Structures are given as structure tokens and as C-alpha cells.
Amino acid sequence: MSKTIRENDSVVLMDGKGNRILLTVESGIKKVKDLGVYDPGDLIGANYYQQITIGNKKFMIMAPSISDKITAIERKAQIILPKDGMFIIFYCDIKSGDKVIEGGAGSGALTILLANSVRPKGKIISYEKRDEFIKIAKKNLIRAGLNEHVNIVKKDVTENIKEKNVDAVILDIPNPWDAIDNAFCALKSGGHVASYSPTVNQVEKTVKKMRECGFSGIKTLETLQREMVVGERGVRPSFNVLGHTGYVSFARKVS
Ligand SMILES: C[S@@+](CC[C@H](N)C(=O)[O-])C[C@H]1O[C@@H](n2cnc3c(N)ncnc32)[C@H](O)[C@@H]1O
Questions:
Q1: 102 CB under 6 A from ligand 1?
Q2: pLDDT at 22 over 90
Q3: Is the dihedral of CA 20, 23, 29, 31 positive or negative?
């Protein structure tokens, strides 16, 4: 049986060309980017994967994927892109039921990926010291339908991490080396730490601190992403490479 759309659901409208519009189903006429003036409340009671016509355009109503949710976020700070976020989730073995500390939340892009990985029973506790980012991260999490899996706390992650026995600590702050001691104390044996930094000197200071703290299996990696253009007459790499964004330093507590 197909699921019915309810008030406050997040939905994607996809046209015949694959263009996607992410909407929150709230009643009231508004201007929607790429759609014009529309009342999303008109979708209440319709079914997912049903075709609808708005104006003279046809759309398929779909449940948003994690990629749709990340693409649609409002950004205020540099975000961790999916190419780096998925890499963090893989190497830190983040999975359903895990308890993960994040510092800081920023716009909440990584928080969305983490929350999607630990749900339904896991939790992300995100330390963020600035109110404006707490506000924007919460807004993005609510829009993504993942807010219930996250606690954003107004705290400096370099001062203290109150939680103990956590599965992973993920840092995206300018001075991650100042939070490495706290990460070590918060982690369970076998827990993972990952630190994302754009510059080499940040990496050097962070890795030095990881060694001093007694972390094991320390390594720093970078990912680059290049699409292949598959044409009728041949296949070639895209000229637009998603190149340097940041380095991720990983380590594990084994004591
Ligand atoms: C680059 S942004 C994080 C972006 C985030 N990873 C994302 O994907 O949207 C860095 C955030 O860390 C916060 N921050 C910086 N130092 C912090 C600290 N010591 N404790 C908590 N938050 C901190 C900043 O206010 C900012 O919001």
C-alpha cells in the first residue's frame, strides 16, 4: 500500500528531466524556487510516487533521499561534503545505534549524514558554541526529518566532553588538537576519532596530539571526486573535479 503524505513531511517533486524540488508540506501559499507561487498543503493526502500536475508541469512526488536532504540545506559556514562525510562514516564504522559526539555543528551538513547513519536508536550529540549555528543546524535537521536523533548543545568541545563511552568523536573546528584529549577520555575502548581540516599545518598539530594521547592506527586521507561523462560516442572524465576540500585524520582508542 502506498504511503500518504502528511503535514510537515519533506517531499521531493521530480519533473520528467530529473530536476528535483525539496518541499516541506506546510499549508499556506508561498513562493517556491523553480515552481512559482504554490501551496504545499495541497499535497496533504496525496500518495508518494503518485504523479501530479502543478500549472502545466507534471511531477512525481517522492520521499527525499539523503542526497536531496544535503543538497537542500541552508549553508552559513563551509560544510563537509558527502565525499568526505561518507568517508568519515566508513572509517569510523558509524552505524545504527551508535552514540557519536560532533564538534561543531556549523550548518549541520555532517550532522545530517551522521544522524541518518545512527537512527533509529543511536544519537548524535553535537557541541556548537555559537547560537547562530545552533539555529541554522536545527532548522536544517528539522527539514531533513532527522532532528529527533540529534542533541545540539551550546558548549565548547575543547573545554570538556561530558559524555563517556561513546563510539566516535568527529571534529570540524579550527583547532581540533585542543579537543583531542577530551575525545580520548570520551571514547570507549575501540572507539574512533576523526578530524577534518582544510590545511596541512592543522593536520600536523592534530596528529602530533593524537600520538601524545596514545591513539593507535593514526592516518590522514584525502578524497577527490571526478564524474565520468558517458556520451553516445565515448566516455571521458569530467573537466570539473571535486578536488581539495579537507584532509581527514583518523585514529582509534585501543586502551
Ligand atoms: C566549519 S563549521 C562546521 C561545519 C559542519 N561540519 C557542516 O558540515 O555543516 C565549524 C563550526 O564549529 C564551531 N566551533 C568552532 N570551534 C568550536 C568549539 N571549540 N566548540 C564547539 N564548536 C566550535 C563553529 O562555530 C562552526 O559552527
A1: no
A2: no
A3: negative
